[in-house]
Amino acid sequence: EVQLVESGGGSIQPGRSLRLSCSASGFSLGDFSVSWVRQAPGKGLEWLGFIRSKAYGGTSEYAASVKGRFTISRDDSKSIAYLQLNSLKTEDTAIYYCTRSKYMVGFDPWGQGTLVTVSS
Amino acid sequence: QSALTQPPSVSGSPGQSVTISCTGTSSDVGSYNRVSWYQQPPGTAPKLMIYEVSNRPSGVPDRFSGSKSGNTASLTISGLQAEDEADYYCSSYTSSITVVFGGGTKLTVL
């Protein structure tokens, strides 16, 4: 079964950093780009960024709202992608999802999400 | 990049058809066929329903269909069923090499 599982969320104070993980199973993560998407409580989906597969350079692109604070990386040997969250703000409180795609034509599947709560 | 524009809510009775619109710009929906739609029942992760404007992944009922005209994409659900009640989101690739989502539409089956 193709599956993505996020982990690493939790409660954290403003200004601190956190790294989220996205573990893949049932397929070769290296063949796909990986995107991160978040959903604040009661709000819609917000795309954060993606990392290309190594075949396409393994580089990343980010939404303007998080560029410079968030970083996506990948370790295909472990079938894991990461989202590094720095200088966290209260407005970063959300469920963070990872998902895969080829050529950005559609995201499927999605993980179950991991909740990040930023509060003093 | 501004979010794509969707109606906040739509509703329909069982058996009827509903259409959800998704309006973008010439920098996203209007320029690319990388438009997709997602279904999200309460408390669950999004599920891909339509990709590349009008293609259905395996397992998605053919009651779901997608189309695009100019800067506006649409999702049509025919033969509404109670299980279709959920939030629906569109998304599009953009000329900035990013992805933008719509604000979401809550579908109520009356």
Notes on the structure:
The complex is a heterodimer of chains A (about 120) and B (about 110). Chain A has about 120 residues and is mainly β. Chain A has no helices and ten strands. Chain A has strands at about 5, 10, 20-25, 35-40, 45-50, 60, 70-75, 80-85, 95-100, 115-120. The mean pLDDT of chain A is about 95. Chain B has about 110 residues and is mainly beta. The interface of A and B includes residues 46, 50 and 113 of A.
Gap between N and C termini of chain B = 35 Å
- Listing every helix as H and every strand as E from the N terminus to the C terminus, the arrangement of chain A reads EEEEEEEEEE
Largest interface: A-B, 25 and 27 residues
| Biggest sheet strand line-up of chain A | 2-10-9-4-5-6
> Mean pLDDT across all residues of chain B, rounded?
97
What is the radius of gyration of chain B computed over CA atoms, rounded to a whole number of angstroms?
13 Å
Q: Average pLDDT across residues of chain A?
A: 97
* Helix-strand makeup class of chain B: mainly beta
Shape of chain B: globular
What is the alpha-carbon Rg of chain A in Å? 13 Å
Unreliably modeled segments of chain B: none
Low-confidence stretches of chain A: none
Write down how many β-strands of chain B occur, each being a DSSP E stretch of 2 or more residues. Answer: 9
What order do the SSEs of chain B take from the amino end to the carboxyl end, as H and E?
EEEEEEEEE
Query: Could you estimate the helical fraction of the residues of chain B in percent?
Result: under 10%
What level of helicity do the residues of chain A show?
under 10%
Q: Multimeric state of these chains?
A: heterodimer
Number of strands of chain A: 10
Terminal CA distance of chain A reads 40 Å
| Strand residues, percent of chain B | 35-45%
Largest sheet composition of chain B: 6 strands, mixed
